[in-house]
Design brief:
By secondary structure, the protein is an alpha/beta fold. It has 8 helices and 7 strands.
């Protein structure tokens, strides 16, 4: 019996990186899992045992379809991990194109709102559960050129707090999870390779290294499981000490 035995979960943005690691950890711990991602090859990328759904979380119909699939396949839903994100060119408010700002907010902030909007009633009907918004350490501190990123991630932390208040009576806990610099393929590519990414980002942390997707997955597993049963409306910071400087 795993830590999530008998539970049903939806994990967004799970084609790779942190989301894939979270879905894999949930499957290992006995959950039934739907991975929802906009990648065209999501079915090929799905961890063994997961149900794959191509889904653009910024579209209401797609978000509703994810919950409908959980109801159809599992008859219940206990866990929602809002991890899907889109990345646009960085810059100040002067530099960032309006369409890039709009697209980033649509996926990074409106997406979790829409996924939660449709998931909450089914989670409540299933006896309650846990919703986790994957935010960032940059939801708490500023960084030059990251206006759209910091704004969306900071808003996710606040969204979790308000949802925790609104839905506590339905047995739903809502928290945010804020990773620091994590060694994903996207981050490696952004910095021109694994070694450069590790050198540049690791130096920003007290542990002098980047985190691994699996380490964030373990934190998500804690928040999704009954081990965090007295935790709601909180932000779990897993950043190697980035924000402690």
């Amino acid at each position: 019996m795993g830590r999530l035995a008998g539970k049903a979960a939806v994990v967004t943005g799970a084609a790779g990186g942190i989301g894939h690691a979270i879905a894999s950890a949930f499957l290992r711990e006995g959950a039934e899992v739907i991975i929802a991602d906009s990648a065209a090859d999501i079915a090929e990328r799905a961890p063994e045992g997961a149900v794959a759904l191509r889904c653009d979380v910024s579209r209401s119909a797609d978000a509703e379809a994810a919950t409908a699939l959980a109801r159809e396949r599992f008859g219940r839903l206990h866990i929602l991990i809002n991890n899907a994100a889109v990345f646009v060119p960085y810059g100040s408010v002067v530099d960032v194109a309006e369409e890039d700002w709009t697209r980033s907010m649509a996926v990074n902030l409106t997406g979790p709102f829409l996924m939660s909007k449709y998931a909450v009633p089914l989670i409540a009907a299933s006896g309650g559960g846990s919703i986790v918004h994957v935010a960032s350490q940059l939801g708490q501190v500023g960084k030059p050129g990251h206006c759209w990123y910091n704004a969306a991630k900071g808003a996710l932390i606040q969204l979790a707090k308000v949802m925790a208040i609104d839905h506590a009576g339905e047995g739903i806990r809502v928290n945010s999870l804020s990773p620091g610099p994590i060694g994903t393929p996207r981050v490696h590519a952004k910095h021109g390779g694994r070694e450069a990414a590790e050198r540049e980002n690791g130096a920003l942390t007290m542990l002098d290294r980047m985190g691994r997707p699996e380490e964030i997955a373990e934190a998500a597993l804690f928040l999704a499981s009954d081990e965090s049963s007295y935790m709601t409306g909180a932000d779990l910071l897993v950043d190697g000490g980035y924000n402690a400087w």
